[in-house]
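Hi L.,

You mentioned the student needs an example of a multi-chain input paired with its predicted structure. This one should do, with 778 residues in total across all chains.
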Amino acid sequence: MLIIFQNIWRVLVRELHMMFARPLYLFASVGVMLLSTFFFLTLMKGGAAEKMPVAVVDLDQTSISRRLAHEMQATPSVDIQLITNSYPEARAAMQEGKIYGIFVIPDGFYRDLVDFKRPQMDFYVTNSYTVGGNTAYKQMLTMVNLTSGAFQREVLRKKGMTDDVIMHRIQPLTIEGHMVANPWGNYSVYLVSTILPGILGLICLMLTIFAIGFELKSRTSHAWLRAAGGNYTVAMIGKLIPYTFIYMVLGVGCHVILYRFAGFPVYGSYGRLMFGLLLFILAMEALGITMIGLLPTLRDALSIGALYAMLGFSLSGFTYPQMAMLPPVRALSYIEPLRHYYLIYVNEALMAAPVENSLPNMLALTGFMLASLFVAPRLHRALVYMNYPLK
Amino acid sequence: MWYDFVNELRRIFRDPGVTVIFIVATLAYPLIYKAVYWNEQITNVPVAVVDLSNSPQSREFLHRWNASPDIRLTHTCTSMAEAEKLLRDQTVHGIIYFPRDFERQLADPLGQAHISLYCDMSSFLYMKAIYLSCNQVMLESMRNIQIDRYEQMGMDKEFAWSLVQDAPYTETALFTPTGGYGSFLIPAVLILILHQTLLFGICMLGGTAREENLDQYSLRSLLGRACAYFLIYYALATVLLGLLPRLFDIPHVGDIGDVLLFIVPYLLAVIFFGMCVSVFIRNRESGLVLLISTSLIFLFMAGISWPKEMIPDAWKYLSYTIPYTWGAHGFIHINSMGASLIHTNGFTASASTEFIALWILTGVYFLMACILFSVRKYRLLEPNSEK
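Structure written out for the whole complex:
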């Protein structure tokens, strides 16, 4: 028993020497994670889209059309960059990415309003930039409704009604929107909470493949096994302990920054969310072992690993929901550990769901760890015989 | 130079690692992404109903709302607690709640009725589907109520109508009218795939050459290799940006000639950018390990999915040094919104800013690559510097 611990210790010390001899290991883990955290936390000022540039095409050029533009400018979500009387000019500005929406006030707008002729307002948005386009769309829709309301108010006032009575005439029905678990509609809450753990997982996967594959590539796997007393399990444990330690520290640090300092909400269990992250890290490491085990050539395993993990960001469904994907793609999403971490995050941080809801995903992450055991014989043979091409 | 060109082509195609990244990944990734975002719009989002008023008016409202393609009323609950459990279990992604006094408030000529809507915020798109469709139904219902109330006040129906609908409107999504999430994201991803696979491939080839101690740091080699990458990637880009959008219903309203001209400086800028980066890569594999996360950073920094107006200045200026930023915006403007490459006359849109910026980056990164290469070459000639 003691000899096993001694061997693990020997492999671990050997690994630490290798780790500090090459700047790549620390740079690709700690450096990349620090940079990514800093980047994504400072990227989205406030987390809600404000002052999106739009154009107003004012064909009416009256006091009322100017007031309409003025009131639109006063709203927080749009910023009128261009007031023109030429629609082609506004359209060209949109094609050049300068504005996300165009609001057209027709010629004779004021005159028609006074004559009860129902003048028509037109608005145009772009789908090519989705957040900007949506924000502009919502605001312009609101403007149309407000205009309608303001007009009714004027007419009713002339008929001698008080403002209080008018209010209920104009707005007999209201919707109160409640954004469950993210009352501020903060975009960075969904994005950063999944992207940063995702990047950490990506690092775990790539570095695990690299750490094992590099032994094969540089023909040092015999020395590695010798240090472990010829025991595959001891070799693996000793090698992965220092990395796992780094990943765990990075994972805990990332959670502390997100949920303590940046103030992202956690409505459910803190501990289970953290546990989910640690399981996710281990699952990604295990996936790395599986990949280098199936493809014991460093560059093949890395290329495939990179492709696989990058897809996880789309398949996890944190931007584009999984329910909208085609059934085969939806099935594929379950072989991405990030999908399971994302679901644990939704359950624990947003929904405050009971533990049963996260349990299947936790088991799935454990499944990735067990799967890596199946490649053990194959990887062991590769370490012993070194029978794979070098590059 | 001809020798370097041919030699680099040979190295690329004899190296399965590079071939996987250059050819397989570049061609497979767009198809996978198209498959993931196939449905464009999210439809039939399941919603639970808690109707305490249980009135003809609320049922009428629900009936109309259910007709919208965006949502589907799947569960009827008797209490909020029951509905909240469904939301927590992710069986539904929204709850609509009618309070007990809903009908009474509507019947009262001075009353104001409330509906509460709870949206699952685990994805932005749920809220969009639920909220906008509900709002639409609310506005329609409200008009009917208003007309009724004005008629009760003794106005004639014609007048009440004109009062309620005094400002009708049209809404138009320009350029890609049916477009949804995929139409927005895939063009940006196509450009990113070209950028990143080229970057990783060049770093891999550079790292390999360094492991094998090949002399790769002469101007001749730099130009010869750049030509090899350009040749392969021009062909790939033609398939990715010209053919795939037409085959798979990805937006392509722009002029194909403009797109093919636009990507010349884009590819050149990425190639020289990649060569600059590759100088710092020691092993064939380390580039991929170090740089894989930049894919997400470049995508977000460019201001595509998160609007560029909302990005802090420091990141914005940094993004101007990355070819991807200009390439993605220029491609979207030409390909997805129909801008032309250069100004023709009057109010025509052009991607000339991006086009010029890419030529400038090409020049800057070419010079930088020359400098970095000569520094490296000098260091290699110094006998004791490397080891």
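You could point out the following to them. Chain B has a mean pLDDT of 86. The CA atoms of residues 94 and 119 of chain B lie 5 Å apart.

Best wishes,
N.
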